[in-house]
Amino acid sequence: MSWLLSLPLFIPFVAGVVSFLLKDGPGGRWASVLGSAAMLVASGALMTTVLREGVVAGQMGGWPAPFGISLVADYLSAVMVVITAITALAVSIYAMADVEARIARLGYHALFQILIAGVAGAFLTGDLFNLYVWFEVMLIASFGLLVMGGSKEQIDGGVKYVALNLVSTILFLTGIGLMYGMTGTLNMADLALIVPTLENQGLVTVVAMMFMVAFGVKAAVFPLFFWLPAAYHTPSFSTSAVFAGLLTKVGVYALIRMFTLVFVGDISFTHEVLLWVACFTMVTGVLGAAAQNDFRKILSFHIVSQIGYMILGLALMTPLAIVGAVFYLVHHIIVKANLFLVAGVASKIAGSTELKRIGGLYATAPLLAVLFLVPAFSLAGFPPLSGFWAKFILVKATLEDGRGFVAFIALAVGALTIFSMTKIWAEAFWSPHPDNQEPKLSTLSKGERRALLMPIAGLAVLTCIIGLFPEPFVQFAEGSAAQLLDSSAYIEAVLGVSE
Amino acid sequence: MEVLLSLVVGALVAAAIYLMLSRDLLRFLFGLILISNAANLSIFVSGRLISGAPPLIEKGQDFPVGEVANALPQALVLTAIVIGFGLFAFALVLTLRAYRSLGTLDTDEMRVAEPKDPS
């Protein structure tokens, strides 16, 4: 089974190398698209295997766990890899028209594929140190993508992004060292068995907090999110979209994995901290967004705010709350990446992302307006789109847990999200263009239109499908929550088999 | 030996945090390099220290005899050093580029991406 687990990592690496060799011509772009498509097929195959057989584990290099590096796919990992492949495919098609030839020649598409490999690796690994390595693969690729082009804004944003992410990396590494010192193992399943037997549980909580801060920086939670709105509006739109969709979610995934599998000994403390972090993240994110006047800056702050909902699900630790967190994770990646893609098209035809300098898109580009409304309404949580179910499940879980105040915060933040989306709608789409231009989609060439709008439409359709037929997705999230809360299947799959 | 190394780690972290609190980007970066070495040392100490006994396996046997040094933390530290080297090389070049295009290394002055007065 190892080959099926390593395929979603292997394919983007190969695509990255091929894309780098062909970077001077159109071959680089196509290698990236084909790589993403192949990865989607591979991750689909992995998904069907996981659905059929439960948790799948493989040992790399034939070393039995816990000595070698394990790759593990449970429901959560599998769905995250599938959604990574979907986002990668959408963005790599979009990047064909979005990324200039000058930047493509620097190896943009190759770095993009390496980034995807890092993200997929982080989702699939079952070893703590290996998780660190995948984080670094992802990080160095994201550094490159972020500053490619070298404008002043990019360098400025890049400095803050690089500095804060490096701090988080070092904290993570120190946590790993202390964990190894206490337990003598780094295999996550093995850790789950050994950690509860340790005498000094106080030290475990200390290390848990180190991991929480390290992953919290990656996930951009309050008060560690400042690198995100400083950097996400500066690079090319494809870069923004893939960062917005995937990078912070790797941090959220790592938090969910560690705080359901390993650090469950002191829930009344650790998860209470997470709960307050979640509330502050939701509120500060949405208020930050309300103060912005730039398409991408508003969306960046909304990433922060939405991360709060996912952390909220983890913090409550009830089955329904975890269902909500998993559902939210999947919904959010699709919607948020899509909104950044829409912002890119709006900027290309209207000339800017600053809301005061654009307008009139509804009158002259109604198709784009519709394609904006779907993810925007979904983000705000309008029925029958995917965001409604995600918020509904989470608020219900919060109320069942008897935390009315937290539910109120979640709902109020949802209302403020509508305010921000309305602001973008009113200024960019409804009000006339300040320079009396008529931004039209027809100013783009036919090939550009196809490459830019197809991924947006595809992701919008996906949002509608999840919204209109939520049943199988919720059932899947329930299965995933059951696996997360009862880790015996995970541990058995990793430590029980030896190939 | 463990105590001595732990104290060294503590001193390194203290010096690193002092440097990282500076507004100067280059000093921050030096702090970051120091603290990453502190992290590497702490992994090394976590594996327990045994001197003078390399983890070599005699011919014909499956595992080493007696107490030998733990090889795993050394492998981890080596990986971390290589990764850290790559990251810091990038960060240094970025710092140089930031100085050339923004004209300053004072982080308070770096307001191009987030202007004080958004207009």
From TrEMBL, chain A:
Organism: Boseongicola aestuarii
Molecular function GO terms recorded: NADH dehydrogenase (ubiquinone) activity
Sorted UniProt keywords: Cell membrane, Membrane, Transmembrane, Transmembrane helix
Primary site of residence: membrane
UniProt KW Phosphoprotein keyword: no
A biological process term (GO) from this entry: ATP synthesis coupled electron transport
Family affiliation: Belongs to the CPA3 antiporters (TC 2.A.63) subunit D family.
Classification via NCBIfam families: PRK12663.1
Membrane-crossing segments per the record: 6-23, 30-51, 71-94, 106-125, 131-149, 161-182, 202-228, 240-261, 273-291, 303-327, 333-351, 363-385, 405-430, 451-469
Function: NDH-1 shuttles electrons from NADH, via FMN and iron-sulfur (Fe-S) centers, to quinones in the respiratory chain. The immediate electron acceptor for the enzyme in this species is believed to be ubiquinone. Couples the redox reaction to proton translocation (for every two electrons transferred, four hydrogen ions are translocated across the cytoplasmic membrane), and thus conserves the redox energy in a proton gradient.
InterPro entries on file: CPA3_Na-H_Antiporter_D, NADH_UbQ_OxRdtase, ND/Mrp_TM
GO cellular component term, pick one: plasma membrane
NADH:quinone oxidoreductase/Mrp antiporter transmembrane domain mapped to chain residues: 126-412
Location(s), subcellular: Cell membrane; Membrane
Coiled-coil boundaries: none
Name the record gives this protein: Na(+)/H(+) antiporter subunit D
Name of the gene: mrpD_2
Membrane topology: Multi-pass membrane protein
Pfam families listed in its UniProt record: Proton_antipo_M
TrEMBL record, chain B:
Subcellular location(s) of the protein: Cell membrane
Family to which this protein belongs: Belongs to the CPA3 antiporters (TC 2.A.63) subunit C family.
GO annotations of cellular component type: plasma membrane
Organism expressing this protein natively: Boseongicola aestuarii
InterPro entries linked to this entry: CPA3_antiporter_subunitC, NUOK/Mnh_C1-like
Parts of the chain that traverse the membrane: 6-21, 28-51, 71-94
Annotated protein name in UniProt: Na(+)/H(+) antiporter subunit C
Keywords for this protein: Cell membrane, Membrane, Transmembrane, Transmembrane helix
PANTHER family tied to this protein: ANTIPORTER SUBUNIT MNHC2-RELATED (PTHR34583)
Topology with respect to the bilayer: Multi-pass membrane protein
